[in-house]
Amino acid sequence: QVGGFSWENCGDGKDPVVLQSLSVAPDPITIPGHLRISAATTVSKALTSPLKAIVVAEKALGDFWVQLPCIEQLGSCTYSDICAILDNLIPPGMTCPEPLLTYGIPCHCPFKAGSYSLPASDFLLPDIQLPSWMTNGNYRVRTAISNNGEELACVRLTFSLQEQ
């Protein structure tokens, strides 16, 4: 039994993006429901397009971890450019949504070097129809972000999901 939210940087220690702190409540995360997140990160160089993200998602089945497939952009997927995805979600020229706007956290590329901090903020997790294989359980997710082959960030999360 994994239980409990945890995180770690998984890069070689030289990555320009380092997560300094991250907390998530409640634990386990409930869907639908509210999620309270606080985070701080440092970025030592500007992050420009294309930002490639490789996500490896695993679910605990008994004593084993099984890698989840990439289905409808969920699971273990490779995203060729996060910048383009952000531009689709929030068209360039639109202001960033709260609470990002209040805390000066950008929602478009390029991301300037600096320190970014999100004090405890509430987000609504809508009642999305997750595939049955992505509901209740314990998960590990490793996300590596790179630009033209250079790793910029690597974060590993462990968490539990609970459907309401």
Automatic annotation (TrEMBL):
Gene Ontology terms, cellular component aspect? cytoplasmic side of plasma membrane
Where does the chain cross the membrane? Answer: none
Q: What organism does this protein naturally occur in?
A: Casuarius casuarius
Q: Which residues form the MD-2-related lipid-recognition domain?
A: 7-159
Name a GO molecular-function annotation: lipid transporter activity
The source's domain of life comes to Eukaryota
User: Mind listing the UniProt keywords for this protein, alphabetically?
Assistant: Signal
A Gene Ontology biological process noted in the UniProt record is: ganglioside catabolic process
Query: In its UniProt entry, what is this protein called?
Result: SAP3 protein
